[in-house]
Design goal:
mainly alpha; 27 helices; 57% helix
Length: 817
């Protein structure tokens, strides 16, 4: 038995390539296979399958024809509308069915009935004659079919060979002189010959005699091995080619869908390239499918056209119209002719309808005329509004430019003005330091005579004008030359004041004088400093040429007043008045440079900015009745801008002045002016405002600091290591009374602030009487202290606690000794 394979396995191909060529297998048209008995022979190294048509011209030609057919089918997937080279393309060939493709050769009689002529018993292999007969019995080509003659390039002749086969295999065809398909007698003779050579003795002698013996027996025996194909079917002896023999096991056809041919790509670039290729292939498939759909639609249309042409379809039956019999037109009913009355009534009704229509049209016309007049009025109003808007736009652009220039001007000038203000505050501080030092020296001189002198700290040395070291203890003594000189200067100043007042002063008035007049040299220096400040203020505006920047009445008042007059609502919503005050603050502060509110006679209402802002806040109003005179014009929408200026510019200036020491707590005139200023500020800004609270705090701080200084000096003078006053000095009582009178004056000035800050004033009065006056009056109660206590009692009784009132009335008891 032999196994036919369309394609040998790789192992068999390898052994076939290693087997030596034998004369029996030299022909390409026939191959023999090794029998099962010869498979045991180690010398035999190859298994050769008899493969019909695998290497023949017919097989190669058929394979090439199938490849061409596939290429034409692939290329013809899309419609072609003709073009260059259309006549040169191959003609359309219908696709063959799978059954026709499987048929390679016509069926030949096989089985045990085929008997080949048996070789002689003496021979060990097939003879050359037998092999020639076998070759002649083997069919070399299949019969011609309809598909073999399709195509212009085939040109198959009577022998069944195409022109291309004759050109390529001309020499082989010339040598092949065998006949075509054998007849039945030849096949029967061949079978008988093969059966005759199947004897045991002959097989043994042939197996032992040579290697060219080929056994074709089916049965096994004697340890012979039969070789079967792994893909054999139910009829391995059949020469019909199976579908898997021709096209494989079918996996190749489904490889495109089972991913059998897919590759694994490593790396991002390779994966991206594979993805691009896959997208391109998908796009091509979609395009092909769309083309196929179009082809199917065209084919369907063509088939419908052919069916209609053949007359096999049913014609649309037209609807049968039922014919009716003749019906004559109806004869109209006779009507009577119209009468005059009916025609008149009809005309009257028509005239009424026309009159109603005319009335309605007139009314609509009046409405249209009225609407047209309203539209004309609205148009005029819109024109006026547009003109106002354009005018306002131009004015606002001009105003914006002016404000920007004003901002640049203030940014340049404000730092210089602040420097001048700081210098003015510094001059006030220097003057107040001179007066305060004089008061401290006078108090120290008085205390040294009736209470004592604080001992100087160790290590302190003073040098006179000649460089000599002064004796501190000697200079600090009650009767030192320095103290005597200061007492003489004080007496001389008092005499000058008496001459200026043109009358002698009583003894009780001694001590009530503030004595804040500077020396002549100091007065000259202070006056020169104030003049220099005034010159600097004028120089600040010397380089300004525009009148609207020199005078705020010509610039700020005009610009902001025009804005308020044009659009008062917008002016109020934008807080134009506060913006005006903020800009006017520069000129107001420049006008108040060097102003001493507590010493000079210039009041707050005398400044130019005060009157200008007041007039701006109260614009004149045109009254219908000229006899109706009003004291003050009504307040504008801005409110009281004077209060805003006082809050933003005046109060900070007063606070800085009080903190610098411009307020002398012993001066009654300064105290009254300070109280008046505080009342004005409270009225304009309110007592609950932060500005008024800051101003009042600065005033009370002056009293607190002065009382701390007095209590400290008394405590040091009464210390155990203090220098004792002289045992007897006629001026002791006089100095004590003068010292108490100055404290009484201070007490009166403190009580003037009781209306502004009652609680704080009460604390100051208690501290002054308890810490300053009580020690002095207790020690000198019998030497004038009682009389001075009775003078203090009516002034401070309302603000003192009961124990201090009792002290001033009865004097010190044992615990106060």
């Amino acid at each position: 038995m032999f196994i036919k394979r369309a394609k040998p396995r790789p192992s068999l191909r390898a052994r076939e390539s290693d087997a030596p060529d034998s004369p029996a297998t030299s022909s390409s048209l026939a191959k023999s296979s090794i029998t099962a008995g010869d498979a045991q022979d180690p010398d035999t190294s190859a298994d050769i399958d008899l493969e019909e048509g695998s290497g023949s011209l017919l097989g190669r030609k058929k394979a090439g024809r199938k490849d061409k057919t596939k290429d034409r089918l692939k290329k013809g997937g899309r419609l072609s509308f003709g073009g260059e080279g259309e006549d040169e393309e191959e003609a359309f060939k219908p696709k063959k069915s799978l059954l026709s493709q499987q048929i390679k050769l016509p069926p030949t009689p096989g089985g045990d009935s085929y008997a080949a002529p048996a070789p002689s018993a003496s021979g060990s292999s097939y003879s050359q004659e037998y092999l020639s007969q076998l070759k002649a019995a083997t069919p070399t080509r299949a019969p011609r079919s309809a598909t073999d003659s399709a195509g212009d390039d085939e040109e198959i002749d009577a022998s069944g060979l195409s022109r291309l086969a004759r050109q390529k295999y001309g020499s082989s065809i010339a040598q092949d002189t065998t006949a075509g398909i054998p007849d039945a007698a030849t096949i029967a003779a061949a079978k008988m010959k093969r059966q005759a050579g199947l004897g045991n003795g002959q097989r043994s002698s042939n197996r032992d005699g040579g290697e060219d013996y080929i056994s074709l027996s089916e049965g096994g025996g004697g340890g012979r091995i039969a070789i079967y194909d792994g893909q054999q079917g139910p009829h391995p002896e059949s020469r019909l080619m199976r579908e898997e023999d021709e096209t494989g096991d079918g996996d190749e056809d489904m490889a495109e869908f089972t991913e059998a041919k897919d590759r694994l790509y490593l790396g991002k670039d390779a994966k991206k390239a594979a993805a691009r290729r896959l997208r391109g292939e998908i796009g091509d498939l979609i395009a092909d499918r769309e083309a196929d759909i179009e082809d199917d639609e065209e084919a369907l249309e063509w088939e419908k056209a052919q069916v209609q042409r053949s007359g096999m379809h049913e014609d649309e039956r037209s609807e049968k119209t039922l014919r009716k019999g003749y019906t004559p037109a109806p004869i109209p009913v006779a009507r009577p002719p119209p009468t005059i009355l009916s025609a008149s009534s009809r005309l009257t009704k028509a005239m009424g309808d026309i009159q109603i229509s005319k009335t309605e049209s007139d009314r609509n016309l009046d409405i249209v005329i009225q609407e047209l007049a309203e539209l004309e009025g609205q148009e005029k109003d819109l024109r006026v509004a547009v003109e106002k808007a354009e005018d306002k736009k131009e004015w606002m652009e001009e105003f914006r430019g002016w404000v920007e220039m004003l901002g640049a001007f203030l940014e340049e000038k404000f730092p210089k003005l602040e420097s001048i203000e700081n210098d003015a505050v510094h001059h006030i501080k220097e003057r107040s330091d001179i007066v305060r030092k004089r008061h401290e020296e006078d108090d120290g001189d008085d205390l040294s005579l009736f209470l004592g002198v604080p001992r100087p700290a160790a290590g302190e040395e003073e040098v006179d004008e000649l460089g000599r070291v002064k004796d501190i203890n000697r200079e600090a003594g009650p009767s030192s030359g320095v103290r005597r000189g200061r007492r003489e200067e004080r007496g001389a100043r008092r005499l000058r004041r008496q001459r200026q007042n043109r009358g002698p002063a009583s003894v009780d008035e001694d001590g009530f004088s503030t004595d804040s007049t500077l020396a002549d040299a100091d007065i000259q220096d202070y006056t020169a400093a104030l003049n220099k400040l005034d010159h600097r203020v004028h120089a600040l505006m010397h380089d300004v040429k525009a009148e609207d920047f020199k005078d705020p009445n010509k610039g700020l008042a005009v610009k902001f007043g025009g804005w308020r007059q044009r659009d008062e609502e917008e002016y109020s919503s934008a807080f134009g008045g506060l913006a005006l005050v903020q800009a006017w603050e520069f000129w107001a502060r420049a006008e108040m440079v060097g102003w001493e509110p507590l010493r000079g006679s210039t009041s707050l209402e005398s400044f130019g900015w005060f009157g200008s802002l007041y007039r701006y806040c109260h614009p004149p109003v045109q009254h219908a009745d000229e006899d109706d005179d009003m004291d003050d014009a009504p307040l504008s929408c801005d409110g009281d801008l004077v209060a805003s200026m006082v809050s933003s510019a005046v109060v900070p200036l007063l606070t800085k002045t009080f903190e610098a020491g411009a307020y002398d707590p012993y001066s009654a005139p300064q105290t009254r002016r300070a109280v008046d200023l505080a009342d004005v500020v409270a009225e304009l800004t309110g007592k609950d405002s932060r500005k008024f609270t800051a101003l009042l705090k600065a005033v009370l701080t002056v009293f607190h600091e002065h009382l701390i200084s007095l209590s400290t000096s008394i405590a040091q003078a009464t210390a155990f290591d203090a220098i004792q006053p002289p045992a007897f000095d006629p001026a002791t009582r006089t100095e004590m009374e003068r010292y108490v009178r100055r404290r009484i004056k201070l007490l009166k000035n403190i009580l003037l602030w009781k209306r502004e800050a009652p609680q704080e004033v009460r604390e100051l009065v208690v501290r002054l009487v308890g810490e300053v006056l009580r020690p002095i009056l207790s020690r000198h109660w019998d030497g004038g202290g009682k009389e001075m206590g009775l003078k203090v009692l009516p002034i401070a009784e309302a603000s003192l606690p009961p124990d201090l009132v009792q002290f001033l009335q009865q004097g010190p008891n044992d615990r106060w000794q």
